[in-house]
Structures are given as C-alpha cells and as structure tokens.
Amino acid sequence: MTAQPPYHVRSILSWPRYRSEPPAIPQLPMTKSEMDKLGWDCCDIIIISGDAYVDHPSFGMAVIGRTLEAQGFRVGIISQPDWKSADDFRALGKPNLFFGVTAGNMDSMVNHYTSERRIRSDDAYTPDGAAGKRPDRAVTVYAQRCREAFKGVPVIIGSIEASLRRIAHYDYWSDTVRRSVLPDSKADMLVFGNAERQIIEIAHRLANGESIKAITDIRGTAFMRREIPSGWSEVDSTEIDTPGALIEHADPYAMEDSAANAECSKGSASGQREEIIRIPISHLKLNRARTVIRLPSFEAVKEDPVLYAHASRLMHLETNPGNARALVQKHGARDVWLNPPAIPLATEEMDAVFDLPYSRVPHSSYGHARIPAYEMIKHSVNIMRGCFGGCTFCSITEHEGRIIQSRSESSILREIENIRDKTPGFTGIISDLGGPTANMYRLACKSPDIEAACRRPSCVFPGICKNLNTDHTPLIHLYRKARSIRGIKRIFIASGLRYDLAVESPEYIEELATYHVGGYLKIAPEHTENKTLSKMMKPGIESFERFRKMFEQASKKAGKKQYLIPYFIAAHPGTSDEDMLNLALWLKANHFKPDQVQAFLPSPMATASAMYYSGKNPLRKIRKNSEAVFTPKRKKQRDLHKALLRYHDPMNWNLIRGALKKMGRTDLIGNGPECLVPPSGRSVRMNHKLQRPQPLRKNRRKRRQ
C-alpha cells in the first residue's frame, strides 16, 4: 500500500455517536408513516435530492445518509420533490439540525440538456426514466424552497452541481458567467467534493449547539463573508500566477517576486481599483495557513474573459489539499470564501463508508418501476475515488480531487460477496470493478512530501511524472481474488481506462484481456492531433497505438477475438476543421465507424470551459496577448465536426462534401479507397439500420467500387 501523505486531520471514525440507537434500518424514511414505524418524532437531518432514492453506494444521497446514520443521526430523504411550492419540503417535518440539498448524481443542466442545448427526453435517475422530475439548477431551487418551508433551519448545499459552481463560473446553457451558487441559493454553507468528512463534523458541531454562521474553519466548505477576519493575510491572485507554463512548476514555494508585476487587469467592471493588501511572495511560505487569495470579483470576470481565464487558472492551482490556500471572490458587497479542499479519506475511512449497511435496492415506494441508472450499476463495485489525469474537459478532478483514495482489498471483496448474497436477480456477473478511472487503484506519488507540495494539474501529462508509482500489482491481485470468489462467474471492467498507465504494466493488460473484457473494450483517446490533445491534456495517439498493439497480442494469446471501441470528442477547444478531417481519415484508415459521437459540452469550472469562454489557454500564464485558443462554437461547424466522426453515414455526406470543397480537399471525394466520401449522386439506402460500433480490425470484404 502506498504511503499516506503527511496530513493531520481527525478521522471520521473518531466521533462519538450522537444517539445510541442502532443504525441498521432497512432504508432511510421518505414519509412520516415510515418515521412513525421507526419511533421517530422528527429527523435530525433531511436530505433533498433530485434523484430517486436508491440505497446503493453509487448514489450520493445514500452515501451521505448512511454515513450520518452511522454517526447516530436520524436522517430522512425527500426525493424529487415538487419544487413549485414548499409543501413537499415539509413532508418529514422540521429537521433538528439542517437540510442537506443535492441536485443528485448529475448536474441538473447536464441531466436536462444535450451538448446542443436540446431537451433530453428521459432521465436515467428517475423511475421509468421519466423526464421533468427535477428543475433546472436544482440546487438553487431546492435550497430556496427549504427556506420557505422552515425559516431559520440551516441549509447546506452539496453534490457535483454545487461543487462545480462554488465560484463565479461560465454557464454554457445561458452563455454567460453566473455567480457562485451560494448567493443565488441563499444557502448557509456549501460543501464541495465527496463530503463525508465535512458533513460529519458539521452535523456534530451543530448538534453541540454551535451556530452555522460560526462554523468557518472546516476544509472543503464555502460560505459568505463581508470582510476578511483578523489574523489573515490577503494576497491578490495576480501575485501568485508566475510566468511560464503551469506544468513547469516543480516547487510551490519557488515563486519569483517579479510575479507582482503581472499584467492581468485588477480593475472591477466599473473601472475602479479593488483595495488589496499586498503580501510579498517570499513571505507566503510562512503565512500559508492564514493566507487567503483574492480572485477577481464576479463583476470583473463577467466583463473580462481574460480575468475569467486567470481566475480559473488560479482556482486550479489551489486544489491540492497539501498546499492549497483559502480563496475569496467578491460578489457585490459580500465575499464568497472557499476554504482549502478537504483532506482525502484514508483507506480505513473509505472502507467504513462503503461497508455501511446499504440495502443496494431502490426505495420500496417505487414498486417495480425501473430506474435506468440503477440497472446499469447495481452489480458494480467502486474501488477508488479521484483522478490525477487532469483532462481539461472533465470535472472529476475538480469534484473528487486528484489524490487517489482507495479501498482495501478485503472491503472490496466483502462487497462482492454481499452483492452475490443479497442483491435480487444477481446472476454471477459483476458489471464493473472500477471508479472514475479503472486502473488508478492505489497509484500515488512515491513521496508523500512531494505529493503534498506538488502543483502540477496532472501526473500523466505531458508525460508520466517520474515520481508517480505506476505499479498495477495490487490491482492485478484484486482482480484475481475477486474472480475466485464462489458464485462469481465473470467480472467486467467498464470504467474508463488510462491506456498510458496500462502500457507500463504488460501483466495488467494481459490480465485484463484474458479475463475481464467481453469482446469489446471502450477506450477514450479523444483525438488524434497533438494540437488538440495538448488542450485536452491527453497523451498522443502513439500511446493509444502502443496499448492497442499490446491488447491485441494479449487477446490473441488468450485465444479471444476482442476489439477496442475508441471514443472521441468533437468541437473541443483548440480543434480546427483540418484537425477533425485528419481524425476522420485516421478512423477510415483503421476501418472504424463510430455509431455515437460526443460533442464538447463546457461544464462549469472545467479548464476547457475557460478556454471555450475566454479564448485563452489557462494552462499557461494569462495575459491580454497570451496564447489564443480557437473553439468551434457555431452550430454549422459543430455539426461538421460531428459529421466527420461519422463520415460513413450517408446523412452526413453532403455536409462533408461542402466542407472538403472549401478546404481544397476535393481529392477526398470519390469512390477510391483513399477517399472519405463518395461523389454526389451516389445512390444509398436511406433505410439502413444502425449498426454496432465497428471494431478496430481489418475489413476483409472487398470494397465495392
């Protein structure tokens, strides 16, 4: 097991139980009658969620609810309430301590709308997939209804929706910069990240009589303030952003005083200079624990995309729990104050969370209704959290952090046995043994001290850090023990795989190909062109080709015909029409025909979203004249990029032909094997059936001319 970083924090297992009553109830109550059966006159905490209540460790409300229950608190669930009035929010009465508000496992806007802003027709987290059971911007709406239901009860917001909106952020759906969700929701506190550590301490301190307004020292929380408290030093964010590429920072304290001369504008939207108490950079090491970094105000970043990109860059700089400082951002007359991220859970704490008595089934009130998201994950096991990949389009790191938190082998094996023994309809197939990334289990920096000091946004870009332990042996041993459990027929790996890490362990690839792939393995190179990949912080296509070769050899050795299904993103920042054309030609050369394609969706707080909005590259120092990043935004161009990924679909041929003519590439229009699309006038069967994604393999059939 990897060494633990030198963090000093109270364990979540050390708190005394608030109540002595046993925690193991079949399901958390959703109605007054259920409370009555338990002998409860009230709830201590009520969780409001935009998802159907599924008592499974892959559902956030269940994890937080069971975690608080294990601490001796009475927890009730109000799932998918009617938000048009406060009536449903009174269903369980007034909570003694607080309302916990979550949009659910997904951001409500991503849940409702496609990357083209079209309304989705279903909701995987709702019984029978019904759409329309949660509002847009659910955290804000639910929090306001809680205020209406019971005035004076603390409201604490969380989930990925709140986590990614903790500061001023670009909102793709309104195409504007919006305020932090804190002032919009009027919540008392925001918890970001996986919040077990924060929420346990908050609950116990409120139960001990502290006011929510007085609880300002918990990591991983944000709240509103009117002024900087005494004893704190305030530093302007432009003092921290030293010249040069972010990935070149080896020592977080080796910052030059010349950074004070940064050219980023410090004015507000009105042109008035913001008052800043300046602290020399050389003093930061001594005052780090009591230093707050002031980001440009909401009003400033809303008016100036360059300042927005600068603020995004600084926020990402301050995400390592080992060295992050508090952040503050003015919203009108008040500040949004963000404490540093919470300390990651240790292995024994992770085990305690996942060993709780989940029933692993939806609440009984749903009857036989099918909840699609549950059907997908009911026989899966989460073995770790976090991701140190740092992909700019992804929000996992912003939410879960880049330090891997792994469960013990024994805890994982116990969960598999529980699935076998307790889950209705289990047939011996574990659908996934993974997490945000399938093969980062127990991977960490070789030195806890270096890990705590590091400010790189990725451990694997532009190459694998020499300090990163890439040993897959613990994961290989876990796979072998898991599939040897009595009653387990197959264990598949469905989580995303980092192939640049996998190639460091040929034994892992052989284990994966021999036992854990069901014919097709999904993989995500995302693109083929280095210019685009550098904006994604993804490895070059050569790394994918190396993995492909090793995977095919391992499959052949195992006597299996197995194929890779690569995924790609269209219209990502930094992608030109020529880049997408080159990708399409690569797909054709490899005889791959994607069935479904993904267009870039700018999620709040992601680095690629800052590129999309500002036209700048936050991976490097932001200046007015710094590197510009072009992003395909017009619908016609986004449609073209998606069409090029599906070059084989006759419905896309006219669009592609027109683009090829404009690009001067009419040589790619024709019937020859070197051509991308046939000439106009070629007859096609328009009633063709959708085919499964074609594998990366040689097409043995002769092409008809």
Q: How far is it from the N-terminal to the C-terminal residue, by CA?
A: 59 Å
Separate helix tally: 24
Main sheet characteristics: 10 strands, mixed
How would the global form be characterised?
Answer: globular
| Whole-number mean pLDDT | 89
Which runs of at least 5 residues are low in confidence (pLDDT < 50)? 242-286, 683-705
Instruction: Kindly state the percentage of residues in helix.
Output: 25-40%
Query: Could you tell me the strand content as a percent range?
Result: 5-15%
Pairing-aware structural class of the strands and helices? alpha/beta
Radius of gyration over C-alpha positions, nearest whole angstrom: 26 Å
Walk across the major sheet and give the strand order. Answer: 2-1-3-4-7-8-12-11-10-9
Let me know the number of strands: 21
Summarize the structure.
The chain has 705 residues and is α/β, with parallel strands linked by helices. It contains 24 helices and 21 strands.
Can you walk through the features of this model?
- This protein is an alpha/beta fold and 705 residues long.
- Among the domains are: 237 residues, no CATH class; 85 residues, no CATH class.
- Helix content is 30%, strand content 12%.
- The protein is built from 24 helices and 21 strands.
- The strands form six sheets. Strands 2-1-3-4-7-8-12-11-10-9 form a ten-stranded mixed beta sheet, sandwiched between helices.
- Strand 9, helix 8 and strand 10 form a beta-alpha-beta unit.
- The radius of gyration is 26 Å and the shape is globular.
- It starts with 31 loop residues before the first helix and ends in a 43-residue tail after the last helix.
- The C terminus is likely disordered.
